[in-house]
Specification:
Strand content: 5-15%
Number of helices: 13
CATH class of the largest domain: Alpha Beta
Shape: extended
Number of domains: 3
CATH superfamily of the largest domain: Ribonuclease H-like superfamily/Ribonuclease H
Helix content: 40-55%
Distance between the termini: 115 Å
Largest sheet: 5 strands, mixed
Order of helices and strands: HHHHHHHHEEEHEHEHHEEH
Number of strands: 7
CATH topology of the largest domain: Nucleotidyltransferase, domain 5
Radius of gyration: 39 Å
């Protein structure tokens, strides 16, 4: 008979087990037996049932050494099972047990509508008070929910869109567009935009903008009388004391946008974006004169040919509708062939 060598780890395990209390031994026995029963499956990866997961969740909450003997799965998996069980428990506890808040009777709803229609200016608080006097128990929130939708009287409230529309003819926008050149220099395109019909009143280009040069451009955009009262601009340092004094002499009220808030000068930013997408992204600037000619062509196209969403699909310079009786549609190139003008009148589009 061959004697088996005595293994030191086994002796140590037996000695440690003798020192444990009964509850710890029972929990350890349950954990090991459960894992052995799960590993008896023929499949390579044992399939755990919901009851198996529940057992390990209970052991994790009641036994501190549960993760030392876990070999089937990772301890993080047991934690995930516990979180899933927590969600399922509270979903079950928060289930809908009844029909909910009782529905307002149809006769009461009809009465609310009749009161709102027959009495001018009656809101939910007034109708709610009348219903309480009639012995109808209902909350004011429920009354407001069944109030009919009524249009506000003309002029009773003015929306921001209406406010801005009423002051479009008095507002001007100024800004710079930066254009890189073929020699990696920078050319600045300054423009004055009228918000009334999105018209470019004046533009110019330079490599070295100064406060004096910028103020002179605004003066050239308003040669006789300012076409507006308000001038919207950002907080660029070029708009210094000299610029402010010169523009104030024109009778324009300068409105500065907040720092790092280009959206507050949205009309100018949109025009710069259109200039880039429609023109400058397809052209390499060589010199100031060449860029000035390119921008001038685009401005002409922008005024006379390009339709604008904010103008009801019209152009800044109003463009007449050409009915089919005028003839065939003819395409005419614009901005060096980047865009085209489609017209039935060859003389008008040429």
């Amino acid at each position: 008979m061959v004697s088996m060598p005595l293994q030191l780890p086994l002796v140590a395990a037996v000695f440690v087990a003798a020192l444990k209390d009964r509850a710890d031994l029972v929990a350890e026995n349950v954990a090991l037996r459960h894992q052995l029963s799960c590993l008896k499956h023929r499949k390579k990866r044992p399939k755990l049932r919901p009851l198996d997961r529940a057992l390990w969740v209970v052991l994790a909450r009641s036994w501190s050494r549960w993760n030392e003997l876990l070999v089937m799965v990772k301890p993080a998996t047991v934690v995930a099972w516990h979180k899933k069980g927590f969600r399922l428990f509270w979903r079950w506890k928060s289930r809908k047990r009844g029909p909910g808040r009782p529905r307002v009777h149809k006769d009461v709803r009809k009465l609310i509508v009749e009161m709102a229609v027959a009495n001018v200016g009656w809101g939910a608080p007034r109708i709610h008070g009348e219903l309480l006097k009639l012995g109808i128990e209902i909350s004011e929130i429920s009354v407001s929910r069944y109030m009919p939708k009524r249009a506000a009287p003309p002029g009773s409230q003015q929306r921001w869109r209406t406010f801005l529309h009423n002051h479009m003819h008095e507002a001007l926008d100024i800004d710079f567009a930066v254009v890189p050149t073929i020699t990696f220099e920078v050319i600045y395109v300054f423009f004055v935009l009228s918000l009334d019909r999105r018209r470019i009143l004046h533009f110019n280009v330079t490599k070295h903008p100064t406060a004096q040069w910028t103020a002179q451009q605004v003066v050239e955009a308003c040669p006789y009388e300012p076409p507006g009262r308000f001038l919207f601009r950002d907080n660029d340092k070029i708009y210094g004391a000299y610029f402010r004094k010169r523009v104030d002499g024109l009778g324009l009220t300068q409105v500065k946008t907040a720092f790092r808030s280009p959206w507050q000068n949205g009309f100018a930013e949109r025009w710069i974006g259109g200039l880039r997408r429609d023109c400058l992204d397809h052209v390499i600037a060589v010199s100031e004169n060449q860029l000035r000619c390119v921008v001038r062509r685009y401005v002409d196209y922008f005024h006379e040919d390009r339709t604008h969403l904010g103008l009801g699909k019209d152009t800044p310079v109003p463009r007449a509708v050409e009915p089919p009786e005028m003839g065939e549609i003819v395409a005419f190139p614009r901005v060096g062939g980047l865009h085209h003008r489609y017209s039935r009148d060859a003389r008008r589009a040429a």
